[in-house]
Write a structure and sequence with these properties.
The chain is an alpha/beta fold. The chain contains 12 helices and 10 strands. It folds into 4 domains: 11-218, Alpha-lytic protease prodomain-like (Up-down Bundle); 224-298, Alpha-Beta Plaits; 305-378, Cation efflux protein, cytoplasmic domain (Alpha-Beta Plaits, 2-Layer Sandwich), CATH 3.30.70.1350; 385-468, Cation efflux protein, cytoplasmic domain (Alpha-Beta Plaits, 2-Layer Sandwich). The strands form 3 sheets. The chain has a 4-stranded mixed β-sheet, covered by helices on one side. 36% of the residues are buried.
Length: 471
């Protein structure tokens, strides 16, 4: 298992925190102003629609206060008790706002319906100053809607988005009140109750939408946008793996992604860790401000016998390396041969015990294998080497040039020598056509090494590295 995360506490938050709180404070001040103005105007004129708008603004005041509290809590870094941060405070506040909005709006709608049915209610006095107040209210509603909407998009804040939604419904509601008062002035008294019903319907609709969005976040519902971003990131990673599980959720402006991926069982742990790092980087590139956790596990029951046998052999603690694994089909079963390297300090008895454990591990993982032949060899120690001096290697270099030309039709692109306790080692790089198979390239390199040892037996070893032509 491997993981790399970017702690929320380590992310820059100072300027964002100040901007969020300033926007929330502006909303509180505007809401107080509107509540007072609408309520006084509604009482003086007898307009239920104005009173409904005052109640609407009162809910916005509560919403703004909750938002101010929420953003102050939400921007706090993760701590020991809240290891995923405090981002959901915004959505808890938004859920409370939506419930409050809905209850007040239902009460206003009920009163408006009673007025329409009974034809009662005080006579509404439409004055020039009431219309002026309404004009000022519309300007304030429009400005604070724009301010909150821009801030919510800039900081990905659910609480400020909720405020923008409320203020937008205020703007539409104020326009409905204005139209209602114009009709009242023309002699249609019931227009005020109709306007109040329109405002209530707008608020209830907004409250339901806000509640649904908040509940989705609190219930850890994934979003189509995050799913698409994660899928695109996984497709972009150029590694062999199988996606087993993807879980994503978000809180405030932060995302949390948990991934389980399967990789071939013979992949080394360092390579597996590198694959996990690549996946995490790709996800964060496409979904910023994301905390990513990747769990890597071997692919059970998949892959070739060789891969599964290699993984089983490497599970024995003293085995350091496994190579030359060969699978052979005999009748209805399989037989395996493999080479395993262990520390050279072990005795033959100890090495034989290791071979038994390797074979037992493979039999357990691959019951379809009937026989296993294990060749145990010592792990090579790191040897010291030096560069030969001057013209000591000219004869060797000439032989190497001849042999390589014979097999490839071209001279070697690089020849180096090292002197070690095991003798002189020739390191030779040759080029072959890039479209030849790996098996063919390996055989060609083996033939060159064989001929070099035949013609220069004094060489301790020859290692041929192949590269594609033009690579």
């Amino acid at each position: 298992m491997t993981s790399t995360t970017v702690p929320i506490a380590d992310r820059p938050q100072g300027s964002a925190k100040g901007s969020l709180q300033r926007t929330a404070l502006i909303s509180v001040g505007a809401a107080i102003f509107l509540v007072v103005v609408k309520l006084v105007t509604g009482i003086l004129t007898g307009s239920l629609a104005f009173v409904a708008e005052a109640a609407h603004s009162a809910t916005d005041l509560v919403a703004a206060l909750l938002t101010l509290f929420a953003v102050r809590v939400a921007v706090r870094p993760a701590d020991h008790e809240h290891q995923y941060g405090h981002g959901k405070a915004e959505h808890l506040a938004a859920l409370g706002e939506s419930a409050f909005l809905g209850l007040i709006s239902l009460a206003i709608a009920l009163q408006a319906a009673i007025r329409l049915v009974d034809g009662g209610g005080p006579e509404i006095d439409v004055t020039w100053w009431a219309l002026t107040v309404l004009g000022v209210v519309i300007v304030v509603d429009a400005s604070r809607t724009v301010v909150s909407l821009r801030a919510s998009r800039r900081h990905s804040s659910a609480a400020l988005a909720a405020n923008a939604l409320h203020f937008g419904s205020d703007l539409v509601g104020s326009a409905a009140v204005l139209v209602g008062l114009v009709f009242v002035a023309a002699g249609y008294q019931s227009a005020d109750a109709i306007a109040a019903l329109i405002v209530a319907a707008l608020v209830i609709t907004a409250a339901m939408r806000l509640a649904r969005g908040s509940i989705d976040v609190l219930m850890d519902r994934s979003t189509a946008e995050s799913d698409a971003a994660i899928g695109s990131a996984l497709e972009a990673v150029d590694e062999r793996f199988v996606v087993r599980r993807v879980r994503a959720r978000h809180a405030g402006a932060s995302h949390f992604v948990d991934l389980v991926v399967g990789i071939p069982p013979d992949v080394q742990i360092t390579q597996a860790h590198a694959t996990a790092d690549d996946i995490e980087t790709a996800v964060r590139d496409r979904l910023p401000n994301t905390d990513v956790m990747v769990h890597v596990e071997p692919i059970e029951g998949e892959g070739s016998l060789r891969e599964r046998a290699t993984a089983a052999a490497l599970s024995v603690p003293e085995v350091r390396e496994v190579h030359n694994v060969r699978a052979m089909r005999t009748d209805e079963t399989y037989e395996l041969t493999l080479h395993a390297k262990v520390p050279g300090t072990r005795t033959l008895d100890q090495a034989h015990g290791t071979a038994d454990r390797v074979e037992a591990s493979i039999h357990h993982a691959l019951p379809e294998v009937s026989r296993i032949y294990t060749h145990i060899e010592p792990l090579s120690e790191t040897a010291r080497a030096s560069r030969p001096q001057g013209g000591e290697v000219e004869d060797d270099r000439a032989v190497i040039d001849t042999v390589v030309r014979r097999h490839t039709g071209a001279p070697p692109v690089d020849v180096r020598f090292r002197d070690s306790s095991q003798g002189r080692i020739a390191l030779v790089t040759v080029v072959l056509p890039g479209d030849v198979s790996l098996g063919s390239a390996h055989r060609r390199a083996g033939e060159i090494e064989h001929d070099l040892r035949e013609e220069r037996p004094e060489l301790g070893d020859a290692v041929v590295h192949t590269e594609p032509r033009g690579g």
